[in-house]
Write the structure tokens for this entry.
Amino acid sequence: MNQTLPLLFGFVTTPLELISFVMSVITVALNIRQLHWAWLFSILSSGLYAAVFFDSRLYGDMGLQVVFILVSVWGWGLWLRGAQLQHGFAITRLTRQGRVLSLLACAFGFALLAWFLKSFTDTDVPYADGFLTAGSLLGQVLLSRKKIENWHVWIIVDVLYVGLYVYKNLMLTALLYALFVIMAIFGLRVWSKACQA
């Protein structure tokens, strides 16, 4: 168990949760600006948050952080290769088929994750954890591919995460995800202006 810190902005937190919070804010701020260094901070914050979520028995979210690390390495490579192209790695929109496939993949991921979490772990929130894990995976993959719809996914997921983290008494992380909602709305506006397709 992590030691708790005194009240911070009115919230009890741990040093690990606090460091994860700061790294995550930096990650999203860099993503909005389309700076490839966002992926390094994503890797670091995901590793730290894996430990925070393990301590809170949010195993879907813990496993998600491991996947985030892998997807972040992939996304970093895509963004670096794209920067070498003549016109860079442009922001685009999903096709209709891409949206349908994304929703189907998310629904399948939710069903599989919820079943696994309910059957093989001691989590008390298998459906919420499974749904938000599947949604986060979709958001991360779309972000890696610079699809503008990643911000729509993050807005929905982040709003729901606020409630889950309040329920799990991860108040600083709940505040982080409330901040993520605002940042995702801003990211959507910035990326919409830059979108080429």
